[in-house]
């Protein structure tokens, strides 16, 4: 017959022999965890690299939009009266002056050929063309303004708007 102390002694002996992991189990665990960590770090690396791109695009967009707003606030042509009415070229009013780059920047046409490279990585250029036919108007009744902003990765962001002689 087994006594209580004998039973406990056998149980403790068996428990000690089963405690711990084998060397092979430890190596397999380390390999599995290493593979999982490598995959996880690759995902985080991609996420960190791609989070910078939207910030760069937003800066380019803000820079371009600020210049576009400045240009659209100007008169249609040099001889357009303040407020735009009566429109140049209408009955009894002088014809609109053609697009010609000037340093006064008082009308839309003055910005044609404008470029700004003071902000490295974000060069800006502007093109203004007669584009009334794009809108079903007389060719000289509207001007298309295109603001191009370069980005450090080599891409170019373009904003386009029309200024109509009204």
**Total number of strands:** 4
Please write the string of helix (H) and strand (E) elements: HHEEEE
Strand content: 15-25%
How many individual domains? 1
Spans of 5+ residues with little confidence (pLDDT < 50)?
none
Helix count, per DSSP? 2
Which geometry do the CA atoms define? rod-shaped
Strand ordering within the main sheet: 1-2-3-4
**Span of the ends, CA to CA:** 114 Å
Mean pLDDT: 86
Give the quaternary arrangement of the chains: single chain
Helix fraction, binned, reads: 25-40%
Q: What Rg do the Cα atoms give?
A: 36 Å
If you had to describe this structure to a student in words, what would you say it looks like?
- A hairpin with a 5-residue loop joins strand 3 (142-150) and strand 4.
- A four-stranded antiparallel sheet has the order 1-2-3-4, with helices on one face.
- The protein has helices at residues 4-18, 23-72, and strands spanning 115-116, 124-130, 142-150, 156-164.
- It has one domain (22-164).
- The protein is α+β, with helices and mostly antiparallel strands.
- The protein contains two helices and four strands.
- It is 39% helix and 16% strand.
């Amino acid at each position: 017959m087994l006594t209580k102390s004998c039973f406990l002694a056998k149980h403790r002996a068996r428990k000690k022999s089963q405690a711990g992991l084998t060397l092979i189990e430890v190596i397999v665990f380390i390999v599995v965890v290493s593979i999982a960590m490598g995959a996880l770090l690759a995902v985080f690396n991609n996420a960190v690299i791609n989070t910078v791109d939207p910030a760069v695009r937003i800066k380019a967009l803000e820079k371009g939009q600020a210049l576009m707003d400045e240009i659209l606030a100007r008169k249609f042509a040099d001889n357009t009266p303040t407020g735009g009415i009566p429109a140049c070229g209408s009955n009894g009013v002088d014809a609109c002056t053609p697009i010609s780059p000037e340093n006064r920047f008082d009308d839309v046409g003055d910005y044609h050929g404008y470029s700004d490279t003071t902000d490295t990585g974000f060069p800006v250029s502007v093109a203004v063309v007669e584009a009334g036919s794009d809108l079903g108007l007389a060719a000289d009744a509207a001007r298309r303004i295109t603001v191009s902003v370069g980005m450090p990765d080599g891409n170019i962001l373009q904003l386009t708007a029309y200024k109509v002689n009204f």
